[in-house]
Amino acid sequence: MVIIKASASSPSLTSVHDQTSKWDGEGGVICYGYLQSTKHSICMVSDFFYPNMGGVESHIYQLSQCLIEKGHKVVIATHAYGNRRGIRYLTNGLKVYYLPLQVMYNQSTATTCFHSLPLLRCVFVRERITVVHAHSSFSAMGHDALFHAKTMGLNTVFTDHSLFGFADLSSVLTNKLLTVTLCDTNHIICVSYTSKENTVLRAALDPDIVSVIPNAVDPTDFTPDPSRRDNNKITIVVVSRLVYRKGIDLLGGIIPELCAKYPDLCFLIGGEGPKRLVLEEVREKYQLHDRVRLLGALDHKDVRDVLVQGHIFLNTSLTEAFCMAIVEGASCGLQVVSTRVGGIPEVLPDELVTLCEPTVSSLCVGLEKVIAKQRAGKVPSPAAIHQQVKTLYTWRNVADRTEKVYDRACRQPVLPLPARLQRLRSHCGSVAGSIFSFVAVIDFLFLLFLQWLWPNDLTDVALDATGPGGCWQQSFRK
């Protein structure tokens, strides 16, 4: 690494962008005065990360591991979870900053757009970040990070994991926030073509800056084991957060109807959430304690052990951008029955999934068809299903494609403040554009104050655990 002495002069509009990251035109990246190789220094930012469990959390972790394997430096910034705060190291030296930010609702932080700037600036400067990659429209911390990163002159990438509507109040407000956040973001990633169409419409984006990169699963973590099944009965497995969006109310209608028709049918349900009460009431009302098992929250390492006990995997989601759960179920050799919503029809071949409308009657019909095939022995073996699924989605392929997005994003200019204010006003409407232009100016002035209070060149540079010359890899080799 070649070190270029950063200017110690007082910060100005020009110096803020000069001291942050840009492509040097010769295969390197200049970040805060430091010349780096084409290997990127990436900060993944989201409210959702381990020990919380879900598709976004798994996506961030697996993608980070594969990028580290390719030689990039990766750190993760999220909010503190209980006593888990400060800096933690995960597998292969993956560094995680658990920042002391207040959680507002459903593991998403409260946002004022300014209180997170000192903390995130410290992370970006200490780690010499060149690309800020935020995840999930639900993450207030992700929106804040993109806003601050653009103020600091860093290249930005955003991955949208969810689908939103256009009619209800919460969707209208979220879509306007997304329009503001993404109007000057360098590149956007969606996990399915349905998700891309949804995001382009919601945020009024140019489709050329939106790429589709699907989720994946590690096939070595989800292998079939038919010996774990009880072949004297048919077991339907559900692994999901027990929330309204996951269609748990539909599941509450399916259970008593199918249990009345099939005495040898049982349900194995993993997950936790506010809709657990619905399932407990159904189990109590119809006296199904011996046929409906509620396992509660599952660690990621335990999901496979639950899946292999079943014959059928059921997904009742009302909206999904991709749905990794059905891929995990199929990888374990289960027959998949799912609602036909969002990007789910794009995920698995027709012979591996039975798609139904998001109604109790349609899902019951689909499940009965699969149960009949299972009893007649007309379904492929779990090993055959696994062999087919493991070639469809791999994290290394996702990392390869994401790396190209980073290369493209780093070759694009980061808008200086005047051009950014003009983009906000022209893209976001006269009212919202003016409001957020004012917020952007305040954010910039706050950044100048922080740079005066604690200049970038006086900030300690963190020891690299990953990336080119990372100490973790060197220690491991020794």
UniProtKB/TrEMBL annotation:
InterPro entries according to UniProt: Glyco_trans_1 (IPR001296), PIG-A/GPI3 (IPR039507), PIGA_GPI_anchor_biosynthesis (IPR013234)
Catalytic activity: a 1,2-diacyl-sn-glycero-3-phospho-(1D-myo-inositol) + UDP-N-acetyl-alpha-D-glucosamine = a 6-(N-acetyl-alpha-D-glucosaminyl)-1-(1,2-diacyl-sn-glycero-3-phospho)-1D-myo-inositol + UDP + H(+)
GO molecular function: phosphatidylinositol N-acetylglucosaminyltransferase activity
UniProt keyword annotation of Iron present: no
Described purpose of this protein according to its UniProt entry: Catalytic subunit of the glycosylphosphatidylinositol-N-acetylglucosaminyltransferase (GPI-GnT) complex that catalyzes the transfer of N-acetylglucosamine from UDP-N-acetylglucosamine to phosphatidylinositol and participates in the first step of GPI biosynthesis.
Family: Belongs to the glycosyltransferase group 1 family. Glycosyltransferase 4 subfamily.
Protein name: Phosphatidylinositol N-acetylglucosaminyltransferase subunit A
High-level lineage: Eukaryota, Metazoa, Chordata, Craniata, Vertebrata
